Amino acid sequence: MSQKSKMFLSGVVEGFYGRPWTMSQRKELFRREQKWGLNAYLYAPKDDYKHRMYWRDLYSLEEAEQLMTLISAARERNVEFIYAISPGLDITFSNPKELAALKRKLSQVCGFGCRSFALLFDDIETEMCPADKEAFSSFAEAQVSVTNQVFLHLDEPHTFLFCPTDYCAAFCSPSVPLSAYLNTVGEKLNAGIDILWTGPKVVSQDISVASIEEVSAVLRRPPVIWDNIHANDYDPQRMFLGPFKNRPTELIPKLRGVLTNPNCEFELNFVAVHTLATWCSSGHRDVSMDGDDQGSDYNPHEALRLALTDWLVEFSRADQPDGAGAGRSKRQASDEEPMQTEGYAPGPRDNPLYTAEPLTLDDLMLLSELFYLPYEHGATAVLMLQELHWLRREDSERDKEEWRRRAEKFDDMCSAVVRMFNRLSNVPNRIVLYDLYNYICDIKSGVTMAKAFVKTLGGQTPHAALALTDDPEPWGFRGGLSGEFQRMLPSHGIRDLFRSPPATRVYTIRPCTPRDQPEVQKIFKEMQIETQQKVELVGDRLVEGHVTPSQNCSLILDDVAGVCGYAFALSDAKTAMTKAQYPETMLQDFPSVMAVQIHSRVPDHSTAKRLIEQMLSALRDSGSKGVFSEFRSKDRRMFDFLKTLDVFQVLKVDGLPTNLVIMGTKL
């Protein structure tokens, strides 16, 4: 069958890691696909045991009945149900019994009424077992051999998809055109089998026409895009509510289809699926493989607004997660208003009854911009980050009016997020709300903390629960163990979507060696010349080499020009003191000392923060419970630099000379 005679596949792949969707959710998906003009559903949930881990096992009678009902439901909505199986975890390709088990399993599903299939070999080990090495010259040849035989066994179904192990350009060695694996697949895979492809990366920011033409030449057929742009199974703190974008509609005549693999939570995919449908219909109105590009009027911003307008209607439906598994309720919010205590009417001096504010389209636009796309924040999120960055960097006393104006602007934006959260929390459709709740609760907490921080910068006192202290409440330090691991890694922060200034330089944090001393002393002397203050500091003795730093407590920051910063620390500061320089009460809480200096050519605060946090981690491992750092009062550049990092706080020390500033943090 020629590619031109095949229908362009457009729809959804349920291919994420995590809890699979329910049968009722899948039926709702089919309803939406039909309404919006999509035509395909690929059944491939990674955590369905009989799809992947126990692929040899046949379905039970109960499971078979569910699948038959699902396949029938898709057919009623004119949605092509594509059943996928993933045997790659443990299949022995050369064993005839394995091939027989695969054929038996797919024949069973064929008996359920399924006529379209997919064989997936993604996310598996590439090393073949000894038996397969004897039978096949390559891993690609083994996969192709089994796939071709299964395809023929099923009488060459109209739609049969193959997912290669190297399913994106980043996996191809040394390149897509020169990949031995892809070239074998393209040459030997039956021409009636279509191939899945995710683009340049697993999660591709852009998919260009040129990149598709390149892979199509190797595969000898146009690919079906398995699009992970809205997938969130790799990060439990992120959902993606931005539009389908950065895929020109000129791609459509060069593809066999596009299937989006969206957020794990079903109800969060209204925008992802809706905007994909708009993209398909805008770029190729009849959605067929007739070759010529008809132009495009697809605008992702307009598509997003259209999707959110329709989604707003869904929020008004009084749906409850009652476990009934029946179809979705069609009752409007006005039919099921939550009731206050019957007959109660507050008096003139009583509190008025609480009235929930209705959710608005602006609220959903804000929600989308806060949770936009993997490589891109929405406009409001970027603006909030820019304002907070400016407020942190600028002195609130330098230009009071400008600082106050921008602080109020940031406060208003934070309040809008809280207002959105409150409105979402009161929507009639609790099914949608509960899929959203963890995410909106997290962002509300984050902006509330940021709002309190700005008030602190402006000299106000926030609520005690939001105060930024050395002993915060648990919501003041987010991320758990995973977050702590990430903060210790050298790559932490380099892929933040908001970076100012852009992180174009490459920095290295490494242990100090004797060869570094001349460069360290140069930075140290530049600071002394800059401040022109003769103050005896404990940290100076560490930098000058009079006192040896504690184990793992001498670090260098490098860029392409050489040493651009350092940090030295001593777990017991008293051992470096020639006299009682500081009160015993301070040293009890902050027993360690750290000397840190960053060259003025380093604009990237996150790099300095990583250097300091690595040092704090070493001190914490040594058993220290606190560390202080000394600065000459005229070293304003370094003092302001550290102040923006939110790592240290200025300590109030009795009897401290006016030309000395002490900052510290508890560990």
UniProtKB/TrEMBL annotation:
Its EC number is 3.2.1.169. Residues 8-284 form the GH84 domain. The keyword Metal-binding does not apply. It is an enzyme of class 3 (hydrolase). It comes from the Eukaryota. GO terms for molecular function: [protein]-3-O-(N-acetyl-D-glucosaminyl)-L-serine/L-threonine O-N-acetyl-alpha-D-glucosaminase activity; beta-N-acetylglucosaminidase activity. Transmembrane segments: none annotated. Residues 319-352 are annotated as: Disordered. InterPro entries: GH, Glycosyl_Hydrolase_84, O-GlcNAcase_cat. Keywords: Glycosidase, Hydrolase. One of its GO terms (biological process) is glycoprotein metabolic process. It catalyses: 3-O-(N-acetyl-beta-D-glucosaminyl)-L-seryl-[protein] + H2O = N-acetyl-D-glucosamine + L-seryl-[protein]; 3-O-(N-acetyl-beta-D-glucosaminyl)-L-threonyl-[protein] + H2O = L-threonyl-[protein] + N-acetyl-D-glucosamine. Gene3D superfamilies: 3.40.630.30, Glycosidases, STAT, domain 1. PANTHER family: O-GLCNACASE, O-GLCNACASE-LIKE. This is protein O-GlcNAcase. It comes from Carassius auratus. The lineage of its organism: Eukaryota, Metazoa, Chordata, Craniata, Vertebrata.
